[in-house]
Each structure stands twice: as C-alpha cells, then as structure tokens.
Amino acid sequence: MARLVWGISYSLYLIHLPITNRVMNGGLKVVDASGLGVFGVLAAALALSMISAWVFFLLVEQRFEQIRLRFMQRPLRTGE
Asked: Is 66 inside a domain boundary?
C-alpha cells in the first residue's frame, strides 16, 4: 500500500483537493451531521481521491514518462 501511495503521490497531490471538496460538500448535504455520517463521507472522499489519482497516474503521468524516455533515447543532433 505504501508503495502505491508513493507512486501516485504527485497525482494525489494534484487531484485530492478538488475531489475532496466536491464529495464533502455534496455528501454533507445528503447525510446527517452525526459523526458516523461525516466519517462515511470522509472515507468516500478519500477512496475516490485515491482511485482518481491512480487513474490520473496511469493515463497522464506514465504516458508522459514513456514519451520522455523515448525522447531521451534519441541521439542529439549537432548543427552539422
């Protein structure tokens, strides 16, 4: 689990705030303000943030890393 979080940490950093805010704002309108309801909404926000960060990592970060590696393998052209 720690390795997964380490791998997606930048994606999680980018995406956690917008998702957490939307889930918390929407979820707290639906559930009561008891401790268990708030805990459930917070757990849902955390789970959705982790899943979204993982998808973002797969679709964006890994693709750009592959492009970067392909670019770095090309020989440099000199001005000749």
From this structure: yes
What is the separation, in whole angstroms, between the first and last Cα of the chain?
Answer: 51
Q: What is the mean pLDDT of residues 45-63?
A: 91
Q: What is the rounded CA–CA span in Å between residue 70 and residue 75?
A: 11
Cβ-Cβ contacts under 8 Å for 66 (sequence gap 6 or more): none
Residue 21 has φ and ψ, to the nearest 5°, of -60, -45
Q: Is residue 38 part of a domain?
A: yes
The whole-model pTM stands at 0.71
- Are 18 and 9 in contact by the 8 Å Cβ rule? The answer is no
The Cα 24–Cα 40 span in angstroms is: 10
